[in-house]
Amino acid sequence: MKTIDVLVNDKSGIALKKGYPLILKDAVMNPEVLKEEGDLLRLIDRNRRFIAKGYYGNQNKGIGWVLTRKEEEAIDFKFFESRISAAIERRSNFKMNTQTTAYRLFNGEGDGIGGLTIDYFDGYYMVSWYSEGIYSMKHHVYGVLDKIVNAKAIYEKKRFDTKGQYIDQDDYVSGTPGDFPIIVKENGMNFAVDLNDGAMTGVFLDQRDVREALRDKYSEGNHVLNTFSYTGAFSVAALSGGAVKTTSVDLAKRSLAKTIEQFSVNGIDYEAQDIKVMDVFDYFRYAKRHELKFDVVVLDPPSFARSKKYTFSSAKDYTALLQDAIAITEKKGFIVASTNNASFSMKKFKTFIDEAFKATGTKYKILEESSLPKDFRTNRDYPEFNYLKVCIIQKLK
C-alpha cells in the first residue's frame, strides 16, 4: 500500500486532532493525489505538520477514516490485531452470556477502524466492508481472525457498489459452511439467521435493547402492530412478553415466509397471528377504514424506501408516518418510534414527534429513549455516528 501526503484545511485539521474519525471530502486541499482506494493517507496541515494516518476509501459519509494519530505506528497486521483484540476484550460479558449469542463484535470507527464491522452469530462471524479501500486490507483482518478466534465459518458482506449498496455474491469466506438458517439467541428468544442470503441476515442486532423493552414492559395483554416488520423480530418479542396478538406488515413478499420461520423457531402458532404482505401506508388506510385500533404500534421504517405508489424519506416524512400511527393507537397505548437515519439528531427526531402529536391534537409522553446498544460502540464526543434513535411514547388522550 502506498502512503500519500494529504493536505487538510485548518478547520478539518483542528477536528481531526481532537479525535474526529472521518475524513470528509471537503477537508482535502489536494484531491488530485487521491488515486486508488486503499492507499494510506498521511494527513498534514498547510505547514506540513503531521495530524494523523488514515486510508482512502469512498463511502457515503466521506472519503476515508483516520486509523491512528501516532506517526510512528504502522498500519500492518499488528495494528489490526491490536484493534480487533481490544474490541473482543471489551465484549467479554457478551461471550459469557448464554442467553444472547449474537452481537456486534467490532463496530467501525467506534473500535478504531472506520468502514469495517464484524458481527458474531453463535460461532459464525460476518465481516461487513463499507468501501473498496478497507476491503483492500482484508488479508490483515482475515489473518487476525484466523489467529485469535475459533470460527465455525466466516462470511462477508461487501457493501460498496457504485450506489453504496450490497454487492450480490456468495458471501462464504472460510471454515465449515453453515447449514442455514442457524438459530441464535437474544435475551432468551430464538432467531433464525442466514449469513449467505443477500444483504440481510434475518435480524437487526442494533434493536436488541428495544425488543427487550417491548417484551418486558409494553406487550402483556396487548395487540401489537409491527410495521415495516421485515422478519417479524419485534412481533416475536411482543408475543414472548405476553401480547394477545400481533399484526406484522411489510411490503416484501419474502417477509411472509421469514416471519413464519421466526414464529416457528419460538414455538409460536403463526396461524393465530396476522401477517400482511402489503405497503404499510396502504395498511394504515385499511386500518382507519375498518376502525382498527392497536395497544402498541412499532414504527421502524428504513431511512429511505420506494414502492410503486410511494416514496418515503424518514428525514422528510416521519412526522406524517407518525400521524398515521397515532390515528390507530388506542388511548393510553404506546408507539415505539425508531429511526436509523444518521442525518439528523435525537433532538430533531423529537421535533418530528412533537409536530405529529400537535397536528393530531393529541397529548403524549415520551416514556424512554435509547440509541445503539453497548456492543455497537461509538465515540460519545461525536453523537452523529450513533445513528439509532428510539423513543417509546404513550398516547395520553
From TrEMBL:
One of its GO terms (molecular function) is methyltransferase activity. Residues 8-69 form the RlmI-like PUA domain. Pfam families: Methyltrans_SAM (PF10672), PUA_3 (PF17785). SUPFAM superfamilies: PUA domain-like, S-adenosyl-L-methionine-dependent methyltransferases. One of its GO terms (biological process) is methylation. Residues 104-343 form the S-adenosylmethionine-dependent methyltransferase domain. Keywords: Methyltransferase, S-adenosyl-L-methionine, Transferase. This is Class I SAM-dependent rRNA methyltransferase. It comes from Sporosarcina jeotgali. The lineage of its organism: Bacteria, Bacillati, Bacillota, Bacilli, Bacillales.
